[in-house]
Specification:
Distance between the termini: 39 Å
Strand order of the largest sheet: 5-4-1-6-8-7-9
Radius of gyration: 16 Å
Oligomer: single chain
CATH topology: Spore Coat Polysaccharide Biosynthesis Protein SpsA, Chain A
Shape: globular
Number of strands: 9
Number of domains: 1
CATH architecture: Alpha-Beta Complex
Length: about 200
Amino acid sequence: MRCRMKDKFQNKTGIIILAAGNSSRLGRPKQLLEYKESTLLKNTISEALKIKNALILVVTGANHDTIQKEFNFPEIKICLNADWQNGMSSSIVKGLSDLLNINPDCEQCIFAVCDQPFVTNLIFENLIIEQDKTKKGIIASAYSETLGTPVLFDKKYFKELLNLTGQEGAKKLIKKHSEDTASISFEKGNVDIDTEDDYSKLIS
């Protein structure tokens, strides 16, 4: 099984971490909130880095300069989404476009966000394993009776992802292609950090 997994990961999987928002409800960059002797963003990156041979990109936007100063992952590419105010879709398009410029042969891409503190490398691995097992084009994380991030898309959906506009996110494609969607369980996937209250509960 280990050999199969290594082959599956080999230069075929991209992981795009979306971190471009301005954290308007929080009032300060959520990406840089302290967590586990690190930050929320660095925690997500550290878990993604455990996926061998995956190409990892971080899409920044509103707080690009501040985040870049705190960045210490030379093996990861930072993509600045200058159009971050146009919504989540612009970060998806920017991240996927840059990923395909770097690796045109990428076969699948996982989109993750920076404010799910309980994400682990096992979530990323399980998405890939489930896709390999079911051959479904979309593998989403299941929590709180919904499907969401992290979510894996096969390359056959890259064109549709690149055509997303406005506030449209990956969930639009999950709903549209429900017959080609499978899921994995992500315990505590419903926990994300949008407000000071959310953060206080996390660290208390």
